[in-house]
Amino acid sequence: GSFGIAAAQYLDPSRYTDAPPWAGLSWVAVWMASFTVIIPSPPRRALVAALASAASVPIVVGFTMLTSVAPMQIPAFRFFVFLVLPYLLVVLIAYVGARVVYNLGTELNRAQELGSYQLVERLGEGGMGEVWRAKHRFLARPAAIKLMRPEMLGGTGLAREMLRSRFEREAQATASMRSPHTIELYDFGITEDGSFYYVMELLDGFDLQVLIERFGPIPVERAVHLLMQVCDSLAEAHAEGLIHRDVKPANVYVCRYGREVDFVKVLDFGLVKSRNDAGGAAQLTMQQTIGGTPSFMSPEQIVGDKALDGRSDIYAIGCLGYWLVTGQLVFSGHTVMETLLQHTHAAPVPPSQRTELAVPDAFDQLIMDCLAKSPQGRPPTADALAGRLATIRMGSDWTPERARQWWDVHHPAKFKVSAASDPKSTNLL
To answer: What is the pLDDT of residues 397-409, one digit of tens each?
Structure first.
């Protein structure tokens, strides 16, 4: 590039008849300084390249003078002062700039390394932090990293401590699960700057919020297939005395998983509560409000019942099933408070009356049982709910062949596992 610029400026001998065109710096100097800043490279390599570029002007000018019809003679001292020294100064500036840019890039890379993982691309952020696509320095396995930096804590000391405790509780609860339908946790740690992070498997698919918003309500047979997998994850959590408390479409992910499709993973155990907890701070978010998502909260969760058990999650599964087959929420008030009051007092409309899809009576009744105001009116356990789902007779089955055909059309398999192309379909927050 430098030789091309120098040739354009100095190869015309006719320009040497009046005043020397080489007096002062040429555009080569601008090119050299800009290149080292825009294109980072190791300082030694940048120095060699800058020296070679700086040589372009004296070489081209010297060649033009020697080959012109009336060769010009320039004293060696003036040649050095006008054609060599200025470009050596530019070389020095370019070298210093290259060192600064290169060191900044190195520091940035170090800042984006967590343990054996390097952050590659931010997939999203939410109230609990950021989620990044990451790669292991030695393994080919892709991963997602949930990261909470110190600046995200904000607020008072109590609020920061509650958020940190919630983050740690989510990691510990997730790591204790062994169900294939619970997101798998690879690692957990704290960086030198005080950032909390945990590493989990990277999924290729959609959360149920995106699935329904993008493709519309799904057939009951598919909804049953997905809900039974959710029950498998929650049944293990309930057996361990853990209540999820935030089951909602955005926290249930359906994906390609190895050779399987329509494989469900339950995410975000950040609001998980043990039945042994005494309540208090564990029941509250940072804003001192009851934890959960209003459109999927059980009546007892809304009123802050300390005797909360797994049947609260059963209520949320009922809301989830309702969403899958209707594409609508059970209740959607104009305000959050109105929605909460409807969950505690209003009678829901059966899903069959809010969708054009065929809904068997057994499924209709099961969803209404899950949405009972009293926990005693719901299926007692996630296993019991899964058992009732398995007995529902439908017009057709959701077979692996149907599932694979759907995925081949709507989300073809990639040759290499990676994050979904749509950031909205990678909701791990």
So the answer is: 999 999 999 999 9
**393 phi and psi, to 5 degrees?**
-95, 125
User: Over the stretch 133-174, which tens digit does the pLDDT of each residue have?
Assistant: 888 878 777 899 888 766 666 556 676 677 777 777 777 877
Report the candidate in 54, 60, 15 with the shortest Cα–Cα distance to residue 33. Answer: 54
Kindly report whether the global pTM for this prediction surpasses the value 0.90.
Answer: no
Total residues found in the chain within this entry: 429
Q: The sheet that has 117-126: what strands, in order across it?
A: 113-114, 117-126, 129-136, 142-148, 196-201, 185-190
**Is residue 385 a contact partner of residue 317, using CB atoms and an 8 Å limit?**
yes
DSSP state at residue 22: T
Q: Is the distance from CB of 129 to CB of 152 less than 8 angstroms? A: yes
- Where do the DSSP E strands lie in 157-219? 185-190, 196-201, 204-207
- Picking from 221, 198, 204, the residue whose alpha carbon sits closest to that of residue 265 is 204
Is the CA virtual torsion 294, 297, 301, 302 positive or negative? positive
More confident of the two residues 311 and 291: 311
User: SS3 string of 313-382?
Assistant: HHHHHHHHHHHHHHCCCCCCCCCHHHHHHHHHHCCCCCHHHHCCCCCCHHHHHHHHHHCCCCHHHCCCCH
Residue carrying the six token digits 């009356």: 353
**DSSP letter at 427?**
-
Give the active site residues. Answer: 246
Spatial distance between the Cα atoms of 29 and 87, rounded to a whole number of angstroms: 7
| CA 347/CA 325 separation, integer angstroms | 19
In Å, what is the CA distance from 299 to each residue of 195, 282, 303, 307, 311?
36, 18, 6, 12, 11
CB atoms within 10 A of CB 73: 6
Task: Give the pairing type, strands 204-207 and 117-126.
Answer: unpaired
The answer to whether the CB of 54 falls within 8 A of the CB of 110 is no
Query: What does the alpha-carbon distance between residue 267 and residue 251 come to, in Å, rounded to a whole number?
Result: 5
- Sheet with 252-257, strands from edge to edge, namely 204-207, 252-257, 260-266
DSSP conformational letter for 69:
S
Cβ pair 189, 145 in contact under 8 A: no
List, in order, residues 6 or more apart from 248 with CB less than 8 Å away: 209, 293, 295, 296, 316, 319, 320
Q: Are 265 and 275 in contact (CB under 8 A)?
A: no
Q: Which residues pair with 132 in a beta bridge?
A: 122, 145
Distance CA 88, CA 95 (A): 10
